[in-house]
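Technical annex, item 7. During the second reporting period the consortium partners agreed on a shared format for inverse folding records so that results from different sites could be compared directly. Each record opens with the tokenized structure and is followed by the designed sequence. A conforming record, contributed by the partner at site C, is shown below for reference.
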């Protein structure tokens, strides 16, 4: 994200702290009322919402037809962004007392983009959002769970998911054979051999999304599908990297949401959900951070993802096995074997708390 967009998200999260809002879903209507702003749903063509300013008094209108309730909440949060963000009222009301908005990450105008990022931060504040995502699992499952918790649209939630991810993830919205827009996680943007996807580019012909979009009925009935894919198909580059491509039709909106993420198998061999505190990694126990860990061929435990930051920590398999009298997972098994072993290890919880001094680097 750019500086202004980051600042907009941070401004929304600051507003929530000032208002002592610590639970989901966040209600933009209540926040507007607390600021003395009247909000009304109206029939509105060609705009998602309107911010009115007359004699120092503000009002918000939002389009009540055409899009769902989640989008209406996002539209109101977008207008609140224009109200709260420094410089917005001055710029938007320089020549009149009405600002017509195009919320939902479809406009490229800087004030609109900033207000969208404010809305995302307001309805999906990072810490609460990440907790909702972790409860939901991975990829599209996590996005659907977070969308339900935040009462946000699948697309807005998917975009926030990519923003908050600390692994390579891309979210693509497409219509037919064209890509409307794509959001990439920082981790993916930083990969050196990746070509960024631009608006209007064609959907790759070999992709599941391409086949899915060939049936307008699948899009309209909000069907869901997934298939194995390869990073090179979407982003070029020389190295083969396994991805899972998940698609869901966005119903009456007429577009398709695609989530491209790493499979657990491509992240590493065998994954265990773990809690990471400053000096320990252990499965599903109490801890300040939650992440994923995997057993490696040489028997060490590698924590590959945590809630707050990436951590790479290692634990001796021998030491853990001795303590528990069990064999640690190995990364060299076939995929079904790894899945079975993962379930078994999750159930048995063989890993113990290890002090940081016994964790050794690769
Ligand atoms: Zn606007």
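Designed sequence (site C submission):
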């Amino acid at each position: 994200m750019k500086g202004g967009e980051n600042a907009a998200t941070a401004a929304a999260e600051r507003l929530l702290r000032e208002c002592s809002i610590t639970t989901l879903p966040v209600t933009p209507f209540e926040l507007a009322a607390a600021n003395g702003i009247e909000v009304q749903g109206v029939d509105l063509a060609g705009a998602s919402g309107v911010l009115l300013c007359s004699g120092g008094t503000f009002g918000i209108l939002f389009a009540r037809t055409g899009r769902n309730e989640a989008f209406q909440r996002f539209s109101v949060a977008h207008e609140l962004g224009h109200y709260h963000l420094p410089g917005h009222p001055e710029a938007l009301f320089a020549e009149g007392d009405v600002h017509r908005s195009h919320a939902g990450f479809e406009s490229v105008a800087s004030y609109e983009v900033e207000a969208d990022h404010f809305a995302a931060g307001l309805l999906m504040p990072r810490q609460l959002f990440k907790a909702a995502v972790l409860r939901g699992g991975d990829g599209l499952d996590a996005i659907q769970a977070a969308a339900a918790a935040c009462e946000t649209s699948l697309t807005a939630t998917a975009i926030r998911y990519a923003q908050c991810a600390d692994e390579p993830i891309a979210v693509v919205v497409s219509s037919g054979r064209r890509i409307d827009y794509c959001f990439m996680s920082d981790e993916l943007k930083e990969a050196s051999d990746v070509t960024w996807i631009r608006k209007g580019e064609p959907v790759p012909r070999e992709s599941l999304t391409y086949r899915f979009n060939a049936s307008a009925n699948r899009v309209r009935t909000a069907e869901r599908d997934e298939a194995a894919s390869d990073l090179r198909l979407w982003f070029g580059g020389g190295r083969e990297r396994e991805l899972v491509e998940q698609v869901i039709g966005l119903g009456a909106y007429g577009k398709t949401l695609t989530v491209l993420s790493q499979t657990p198998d491509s992240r590493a061999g065998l994954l265990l959900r773990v809690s990471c505190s400053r000096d320990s990694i252990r499965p599903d126990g109490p801890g300040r951070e939650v992440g994923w860990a995997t057993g490696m061929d040489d028997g060490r435990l590698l924590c590959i993802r945590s809630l707050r930051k990436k951590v790479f920590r290692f634990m001796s398999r021998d030491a853990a096995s001795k303590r528990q009298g069990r064999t640690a997972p190995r990364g060299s098994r076939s995929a079904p074997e790894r899945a079975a072993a993962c379930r078994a290890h999750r159930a048995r919880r063989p890993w113990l708390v290890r002090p940081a001094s016994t964790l050794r680097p690769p």
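The chain has three domains: 2-123, 165-265, 269-358. The pocket of zinc ion is lined by residues 78, 82, 99, 101, 112, 115 (CB under 6 Å). All partners now use this format for quarterly exchanges.
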